[in-house]
Amino acid sequence: MSFQQSQQQQPSQSLQQSQAAPAYFQALLDRGQKRANTNDEPQLQLGLQDIARKVRNLGNGFTDARAHYLLSASGVNTSEALRDLEELAGPRSTIPPPNEPVAAGVKETLAREHESDFQQMVDSHIKRAHAEFDQMIEERLHGVDWDAHRQRIYEHFGLKRPQTQDGANVIGGASANPGTSTFGRSSRRGRISTASRSTYGIPGMSKSVIGSVGPRDLKTSVFNDVADRLPADGFRPAPNDSMLRKKQDKFADRVKDLNIARLQEKVYPLLTRFAEVEAEPSHDDTSMLVNAFKALVHITGEDATKENVSEPGVVRARQYAKGYLDDAGGAENVLVRKRIIDGSRTFLEKLFYSQVRTTVARNPTEAHTGGTPSALNVVKGYVRVRAVRKELGSDMDALQQIGDDYCWAVMFYLLRSGLFDEASVYLAENRDAFRSIDSHFVKYLEHFTASPDHRLPPTTQTSISNAYSMLSRLAPQGAIDPYKLMCYKVLGRCELGRRTLENITNDMMDWLWLQFALAREFSRVDEMAHEAYGLDNVQESIEEVGNRYFQPGTEIANAAATFFFMQILAGKFEKAVADLYPHNYVSAVHFAIGLDFYGLLRVSDISNSDDLLTLTTRAQHQIAFGSMIGLYTRDFRTANVTAAVDYITLICLNADLQPKNLGKAQRELCHQALTEVVLETREFSQLIGDIRADGMRIKGAIELRLKLIGLGNEREYLRQITLVAARIAEEQGRTTDAALLYHMCDDYDKVYQVINEAVSLALITELGEQPARLQPLKPRNTDDHNNQEPNQEQASLSLTQNEDPIQLAKDIMQLYKSDGMYLNKISRKYSDACEVLLQLAAARKELENGRWSQVVDSVTASDVIPTEAAGNISAIRSKSQAFDLMPTTVARTIGHVMVWTVIALSNQVTRLKNQEYETPAINEAISRCVQSAKDVMVFAGLIRYKLPGRVWETLARAGQDLGAY
Predict the structure, then answer these.
(1) pLDDT tens-digit series, residues 570-625
(2) Which 3-state string (H, E, C) describes 188-206?
(3) Helices 920-942 & 894-913 angle (0-180, nearest 10)
(4) Under a CB-based contact definition with an 8 Å cutoff, are residues 720 and 825 in contact?
(5) 20 to 30 A from 672, CA-CA: which of 253, 389, 425, 491?
(6) What is the DSSP track for 686-749?
């Protein structure tokens, strides 16, 4: 066979083999599948890629979570079970096998020592930081109510509904279970009262009483119901008008005088003094406001001529509170309601009579009264003037006359003026004429004036009612004198369904007088149904008039003040103040003060609502008096903080409320407001007190008014308020304030801690730089004599009025060392630290003045570094070990003190070497200086890793220049 034939035959054989291979392998595969599964070997069911993936995954085990889910569904905590099993198994040994000791040289030994010292230093600092942080958390957040914070967050984001509490819990203080929190855990402190919540980091306080000062020239309102009646932007002009500011100052003076009188237990005519301030010239028409104050004077019976509480008829503070706040309608409540009716009517009568006298004085010719007329002749003259002006009525022919006088008009205006005795005199002078005109009227008037309540006997009441009915219905139209009908209506309270002055020229004041002339507080047993018309009915009538004529947008001039006056007359005091507040908040606040002083105001707690005016459970109006007073002080408490305290003490007028938990809530509200004022204004010396150079305490404004804020234990409250303020001052770095406040609450250790910190920071200031000066305490206001005790009106020589921290520390230490009382209450470690710092301060001062030997002497006296070790390594090492025990305030200065010492020693050596003659004494002094420098350098090396790097570099450079190494 040739080579070519063999080449052709080989390809054909290979082709045949390639075509037969698949069939062969397929046959093997079929044969294997048909074999019985007699062993556990897996069948070949996967491709090569699948087999490779399986092999890769064999090493990567995974956790089947089905068992975990099954156990969890059965209530088994697998994590805790695993930990328990591991504890039973015992801890695994993590001790590495011991390494064979390796002989190391000096370099390796020093490196290990360095690493060990550095690690110990880091661990000690971390441990100390943990301890200080835990202590800070314990002090600052011990009383924080986290459950309340969590609840507010939930409410803010709508995750929970706002909590609602009944009146007893809201105002009354403790809840049903004060020791249990919202989430079932026991809280650290029970919540004493919702009124005790506040801000400024004070535990338990969550809502401010005094509010925050708004932007310049604008004041915001936090009352929701008041904000709705303010302009769209929610702001109102601040009192920038000079006349309004003067008015506020005068009101503040009256409040201060009131508190002085209360402290001296004297009578003060508050409403009369407020009326005088309101009557002063103003851009607005304040006549109605003045009338409102005068009406309250008549309602309360205030007498400005009386000064002593022991005088008969004196109206005391809170005299009407019990009766006014009696919602059950008891006897005292009826008496108060009678006072409101009689006082309002009496005021309207006196106001009208003053107008009558003015009209007669201006028209003497028409009045024709002569020289000094009596009250009866004045009224006669007034009727003549009105007759000349054709103002007596539309039909003058219907008016009856006796002589030249219109008799029924004179009689009516005598009644209108409240001149009942003069009316009897006029009737007696014309008895025969009146008997001929009306034979029964004489009897009616006699019975009316004889009764203190102007109540007619039943038979007389029936007679006058029948007579009035006959006159008004059976008489020809226009044939009856309208003034006669009105006299009958007033004397007999006839036809109470029609309370208007018909056919008589009248104004709003006449209509108001008629309402009160007809009103009478009655007993449902003694009074007939058709004769029932009391204070409630008067209030309904005035409210109806207000809804009709005094709504927003009315064209009536001075509508707000006019309707306010009407509401005051009707005894709707809370509603009146709330309606006036958006228009004239200054007057509204002082009306509220006057009403509350006599107990004629129903007050609410600020935790009830964010509204100024709310309702009690018996649908009685109540006003947020505490918040209103606190917000009012925003206008001036920065400039006159003592005046703000005077106002806020008035909140405690309501401390007598019953039950006791209501009064307690108001007292706590007052205390909270005072605390907020102290923390906001930072007038600590003015409000809390001051100390003189001899350690004598000077009482602050709050302590002088403890009697007015319901406190018998003055030290407890002052310690509470000062301690909070002191912590805040310390946090803000205001050393003088913090030192004073801690001293005022007798925490003398904290005083030392504060001043030691300040001195320490001053000492570590770089050489050549001026240490930071302290912010001196605000001087006391010596112009405020009400805030000074006798013999203390001069400005105090306060120890904290010092800008130099070192001088402050000296003064404090001198004060405490001069009295054994202080020494017994001070820990030795704090006073010793202060003494060491003062010695170091003296050393720095000597260094700056170039007195090198004195620097070394002062440092040696402080005994903080080994300047006299004389090369004794044991003494130096002992001093380095004492370094860890030093107070932080001293330890942070050691690096700088070593720099000062080496610099002083170097300069001292240079000075000695430059002496003209070289003597053995000089050489010995130079040797001692060099040796001291060497000792300091060795000491620095031992604590090298506890010092800042820059300090070590400075020491090394100075020691090298000196030749210490």
Answers:
(1) 999 999 999 999 999 999 999 999 999 999 999 997 766 788 889 888 889 999 99
(2) CCCCCCHHHCCCCCCCCCC
(3) 160
(4) no
(5) 253
(6) HHTEEE-TTS-EEE-HHHHTGGGGT-S-HHHHHHHHHHHHHHHHHHTT-HHHHHHHHHHTT-HH
